[in-house]
Amino acid sequence: MNYYNLKALIKNNNKYAKSLNKKLHNLQRRIVAKCTNPNNKKYHVYGGRGVSYDPNWNNPETFIKDALSIDGFNTMEFLKGHLQLDKDSKDPNGKMYSKRLCTWLSNTDNEKVKPSRWKDYHAYCYDKETLYNFNEITKATNSLGINRTAINRAITRNSSENHKLTPTTTMGWIFWEGNNKPSGFKEYSASNLGNNIRIKSLTQSKVEKLLGIGGSKFHKMLKSGKSRCLYKNKFILEISNVDLDKPKYIVNF
User: Fold this and answer.
1) How far apart are CA 63 and CA 55, in angstroms?
2) pTM of the entire predicted model
C-alpha cells in the first residue's frame, strides 16, 4: 500500500482504506500532541524531555505519505492494532520522529526498545546551579558520570514520602524522584571582609576545613539560630537555604 493507492481506494469507498486513513490521521495528532502540548498526559516523557518530530508532519497528508513508506509497515497488522511507530530502535537515545529515523515494529518488539518504565527523575548540580531532568537512571550515570548505586541511594533517601530518612547529597548533587522534592538543604559559605574571596559548599565541614575552623562553627550557628556571623574579624560565615525551585539552567535528557 502506498499513498496514491490509498487515495484511489478511498475514492472508491473502500472501507479498509478509509479505516487506514483515519487511524493514520489519529496517530499524527497523537504524535503532535505528546510532543507539543504540556497538558497531554505523555508530554513529560516526550516533548518535556526534548522529543520532537519532522516539521513537515504538521501536515497530516505528508505524515501519511511518509508513514506508509517507513520500513516495517503492513496494512492489515496496523489495522489490527499490532504495529507501532517506533523512534528508538535505530537510535536508543532518539528524540525525533521522522521518516528517516522511525521504524514500524510489532507491539512486542516495540516494548523491548521502548522505555516502558520511565519515571521523572531530577538532579540538581550545586556547583553549576543546573537542574537535570531525566527518565532513566542509566542516562544519568552515562551523562553525569555518577555511580548508579549512589544515585539510587540518594533518590531513595531524598524521595522518601514520610521523610524519615535524612536527605543527602552525592558529590555536590541532589537527586529526587517525581514531585518528592527534598527540602532543608543548606549552603555554607565564608567570605573575607573585602568580599573578593568566597568559599561555599553544601557540606559545612568542607568550608570549616578550608578555613581551619575547629569546633564545628557552623553547627553552633545552626543550633543558636544564627545565619550570619563574623569569624576572627576576617571572615563572614553565612548559612542559607538552597533554592531548588530556581536553577540557573535546566537540562533535559
Assistant:
1) 10
2) 0.51
Sign of the C-alpha dihedral, residues 146, 151, 152, 153?
positive
For residue 68, give the C-alpha cell.
506508509
How big is the CA angle at 65 (ends 61 and 71), to the nearest 5 degrees? Answer: 145
Cell of 112: 523491548
Cell output for 151: 544515585
Q: How many helices (H) and strands (E) does the chain have?
A: 9, 12
Looking at 37-51, 103-117, 123-137, 173-187, which range is the least confident one?
103-117
Handedness of CA 12, 1, 67, 74 (dihedral sign): positive
Alpha helix (H) ranges present in the chain? 3-11, 15-36, 60-69, 75-79, 107-113, 137-144, 148-158, 204-211, 217-224
pLDDT tens digits, one per residue of 123-135: 888 888 899 888 7
In angstroms, the CA 44 to CA 200 distance is: 34
